[in-house]
Amino acid sequence: MARKKRCELGASCPYQHEGQHQAEYYHTASPARREGRRGRRLGGAGATTTARRGATTAARRGSSRQTPQRTPRATSRRSPIVIDDSPDRTASLDDDDVELISPPPRARSVPEAPKGRSYEEDLAKALALSKADNDRAIARAQDAEFEASLAEDRRKASKRDRDDLERREQAELERALAASKEEDDRARDTRKRAKKAEFQTVQEPTDDVVRVRLRLPDGRALERRFDRSTASLADLRDFVEAMASTAPKNFALVDAASRNRITGDGSLATLASGASIALLVVDVDA
Where are stretches of biased composition, namely Basic and acidic residues (predicted)? Predict the structure, then answer.
């Protein structure tokens, strides 16, 4: 069993009645105090006081037997406190021998009351917050309008770029078509002049011929004799292009009797079985 230690506070220790504290410390003020308490138990210097208290207790008990109507006063006794490991070092403490000292009450800190604001301060703060919210809302609206305007400008710029590109491409296509048409016209004029010179220099055949009469859209007529065995429908078209200055660029040959359109480049003999044939020059684009 561990030896108890002496409490530095002595008899004034406020924790001397707690079980855990009593098991570890003893609270006698001095060795003389301990000897006096041992005398009470073992018959030493304190035996007289113990005997006196025993006699007083017996007298009280006797008086309680004579007067049963009186209720005896209850006495409080504590169990012996072991001071050290020796069996003779025990003492009994009464309530009269111990002065209970309670610890001083702990001072509670009172929280400081918050400082109140006046109505004007609260109103000014609320107005400032409302103004800040309003400013932020206005800034967000302005940013949204700016972004929308910027997006619209980008869309218009992109549309202008696309329109410009389409116009440039269309202009290039038109220039290419015009150049091709001009080239075709020059080639046609060259061929027309060559064919015209050929028809003017070559004499008309006299044997086994077919007389072809052509009516132009403006009412004028062309007439020429062609060799039945060697002439073709292509020769008839070349004759119209070379000799008729008012002939349309795109024309077709139509049989004047049957009103059938003549196609192909076959021999003239397949078209005309007789000595002559009448054809109409029709403008295809009209």
Answer: 151-188
- Cα(208)–Cα(275) distance, rounded to whole angstroms? 8
pLDDT digit string, tens, across residues 118-136: 888 888 888 999 999 999 9
Tell the burial category of 279 from Cβ atoms under 10 Å away from its Cβ (0-12, 13-18, 19+). Answer: buried
The pTM score is 0.38
The DSSP element (H or E) to which 236 belongs, if any, is helix 233-243
Helices (H) and strands (E) in the chain, counts: 6, 9
State which of 17-31, 47-61, 105-119, 199-213 shows the largest mean pLDDT.
199-213
43 Ramachandran zone, left/alpha/beta (phi>0; psi -120 to 50): left
- Rounded Cα gap, residues 95 and 113, in angstroms: 46
